[in-house]
């Protein structure tokens, strides 16, 4: 199969083959997904920008909205396009964390452990909430997607043993995020056996549970923790057939592409920030040095 797809209205061909298993497009996901034909991908695995948590320094970036409802609406529209481009039996794995209201501050302090989190703004407390409230953004998005037509199948807890410490003194430290499994249809591809776990007594295997204990992974080029490979692997093994095609519409530093190569799948990544595209290409080229030579 020489091409993944080539859309007649596209200004570029998007190619993906065993020799070039990952293709990266730099641009706004809302524009790029519109060029993708229906029923293209076997699975989508992604982690979108979190609301009010990181400033990418780009006009129109998702996550910098004044109103959290605008943020949720934008992501619902993006993921509606993802649903259109998924095959009927496709799965969608969404990593998202919660956040708190600002407590009245209009800025976010710089973070020496995570420089990407320095903000020039801080959104107002959402209407109906109070200062210092836990917003529950992850579930707001999950329920909005369910209402938009997705099947919400699992809420997986990503427990982070090496989570970043917090300076708060009036609540416990947050050490988890959510990984929601959603599907386009009632019946879908899911390889249960590929992700079974050893039983506690060591006698055989059991179905994978909904709490995944996985460390974060640093990325020195990006100066912040990235989507860990160990979080992506079960999503791929369970939700994407061998030699299937995966979409990551918020590609970042390219972890989904890295694991796609390692597991024999193909991947299209869409990334708004060119600096991150460069980082992703460097990481992927370590696995396959000539990966981007043909289309550079």
Features:
single chain; 296 residues; alpha/beta; Rossmann fold; eight-stranded mixed sheet; two-stranded antiparallel sheet
What report would you give on this structure?
The protein is an alpha/beta fold. It has one domain (22-287): Rossmann fold (3-Layer(aba) Sandwich), CATH 3.40.50.150. It is 22% helix and 19% strand. The protein is built from six helices and ten strands; from the N terminus they run βαβαβαβββββαβαβα. The protein has helices at 29-32, 68-85, 137-147, 229-239, 255-262, 274-287, and strands at residues 22-26, 41-46, 86-96, 151-159, 176-183, 197-198, 205-206, 211-213, 245-248, 266-271. Strands 1-10-9-2-3-5-4-8 form an eight-stranded mixed β-sheet. A hairpin with a 6-residue loop joins strand 6 (197-198) and strand 7 (205-206). Helix 4 (229-239) crosses helix 5 (255-262). The longest helix has 18 residues, at 68-85. It is globular.
CATH topology term: Rossmann fold
Order of helices and strands: EHEHEHEEEEEHEHEH
Biggest sheet strand order reads: 1-10-9-2-3-5-4-8
Q: Helix fraction?
A: 10-25%
Shape: globular
Sum this structure up briefly.
The protein has 296 residues and is of the alpha/beta class. The protein is built from six helices and ten strands.
Explain the layout of strands and helices.
Layout: E1 22-26, H1 29-32, E2 41-46, H2 68-85, E3 86-96, H3 137-147, E4 151-159, E5 176-183, E6 197-198, E7 205-206, E8 211-213, H4 229-239, E9 245-248, H5 255-262, E10 266-271, H6 274-287
Parallel strand pairs: 1-10, 2-3, 2-9, 4-8, 9-10
Antiparallel strand pairs: 3-5, 4-5, 6-7
Helix pairs in contact: 2-3, 4-5, 5-6
